[in-house]
Target: Response regulatory domain-containing protein
Amino acid sequence: MAAKRVLIAEDSSVIQNLTRKILIIQNFEIDAVKDGEKVLSKLEKKKYDVIIMDINMPKMDGMECARQIRSNKDPEIANLPIIAISGNAKNYTEEDFKTVGFNDYLQKPLDFDFLVDTVKKYTDQ
Model:
């Protein structure tokens, strides 16, 4: 069985690298970017099984990026599972995340066991 592909969108190198290492151990194939614009360009070039996306990123934040993914004309891209990660979700409610199209939400600091379980939930791995 081919490895499931995960796109990590996170502007913190530390969180990005930790998340990448933990998911690689779980046999996921990982790409990582630091802003929402790069997420959109990656999605045009490669297929992913799930996106893990920070809310606060430069150039384009996670909320706007999720909106654009959900309005993509390609149904495969538009329906990709997106997991939000945020340290200051006080600015948003879970309802806000659902409204823009996030499937799930992880609070920072990340609980890596919960992260792995959540990614597996959306990739059937």
